Amino acid sequence: RPCVWKILMAAMCVALLSGLQAQDLPRQVSIILLGATGDLARKYLWQGLFHLYLEEVGKGHHFRFHGTALTSTEQGQEVIAKVLESLSCPGDMASGHCAELKAQFQQLSEYRQLKTPEDYVALSKDIEAQVEHEGLRETGRIFYLSVPPFAYVDIARNINSSCRPGPGAWLRVVLEKPFGHDLHSAQQLATELGSFFQEEEMYRVDHYLGKQVVAQILPFRDQNRAALDGLWNRHHVERVEIVMKETLDAEVSFQSLCVPSSVPCYTPGCPQASPGW
Ligand SMILES: *[C@@H]1O[C@H](CO)[C@@H](O)[C@H](O)[C@H]1NC(C)=O
């Protein structure tokens, strides 16, 4: 009888432990930035990832950041090392604390070339091995595509076939401006991407859309109700024109401004013949 009791106890312990293992292991999210050596990534995205890290690290989440591009590993590592060195903390953070967190972030970030289907397979395997090695549980993977749209489909194919996380973990793919170059190419791209990803797995963003300015229009009106209510309405506003000055890649960004069909395009260089874009 004591033997049965022992076996029962052991079985219960195993069940408890495996339950614990599945649920209570610290969770990791892997963030894979494609186009990590590009202008936008160097100027904004790495800094954005660092801020995300600063906000989330205290909440018990674990992160890994994989910067990737077509650039050779050696050259890319050099670029990324410089970018990581230049990251800045919020102004109110003590410099010692900032240095410590920056060093942690640098430790968690790597650069690797992501070019061939084999590279994608290797990335996925490396993530799995690292998560297991550190006793973590993979919660999800975010692929952030800071690449030209013509590269989307190949990348999407590789992610779908070789880089999906295991069962129980989610996949998110962020697609960044411009989404095709006219209505037809946008629809075609949407169809192709839809064959690789579920709708809830895709996020389409356009940072050149003057998002911050546009987002402030309503709050501005709201805060100035007394003065503006009688004027800011459809009887008095014929159109909203948004102009954004860019020195870099100006043609592309002007085109991007024409995306929402409710905002007519009055910017020079916009394709007038294709309304909606
Ligand atoms: C996506 O990947 C799955 C699993 O490898 C595969 O069965 C499916 O055919 C892929 N989808 C496309 C459109 O290639």
Automatic annotation (TrEMBL):
Q: Which InterPro entries match?
A: G6P_DH, G6P_DH_AS, G6P_DH_NAD-bd, NAD(P)-bd_dom_sf
- Which sequence ranges are marked TM in the entry? none
What Pfam families would the database entry show? G6PD_N
Choose any GO biological process term that the UniProt entry carries and state it: glucose metabolic process
Q: Name one GO molecular function term.
A: NADP binding
Q: Where is the signal peptide?
A: 1-22
Q: Which key words tag this protein in UniProt?
A: Carbohydrate metabolism, Glucose metabolism, NADP, Oxidoreductase, Signal
Pathway(s) it belongs to: Carbohydrate degradation; pentose phosphate pathway
Using the record's annotation, list all stretches that form the Glucose-6-phosphate dehydrogenase NAD-binding domain: 32-214
What name goes with this protein? H6PD protein
The coding gene here is: H6PD
